[in-house]
Fold:
Amino acid sequence: MNPPFANGAQSRSSFNAQANGHEHVEADQVTIKQGSAQSVDAREVVAKQSGIQTVHAEQVEIRMGGAGQVTASSFRLEQGGVGLAHAETAELENARAALLVTRHADVQQSRVLLLVAGQVSGEVQTLLDSRLAVLAGAAFGFVLGLFMLMAGRRRA
Structure:
């Protein structure tokens, strides 16, 4: 077992935790149950009833927990929430996400504020999809341009 680093980081081939307050965890496989971590870098992460601020891994599975930011090849979220997720494939079941960027999303009974995906299957409720986000951005740019044009005329 490797000792913690001076900055609170912990590095191992396997890491299991049931306590709160881990700053940074680096390991091949990380499992956190009813705990928390500020950041996790691993090949595989499983978090149950836990919270992680930032996760970078090949595979991430979160059940009844949440994460601020997830970057992964494969991401699964069940009965939880995520702020920002970027993954090749993403599965959400009875979950919430603010921003999900993925090539393929399989979403069941979940809500996503902004979904950017190449392919979507399942039942998802979005406030903005990629098409509406482009339209909203164009409309915002148009209105901002009009205000700047009017402000420029007032100065002249």
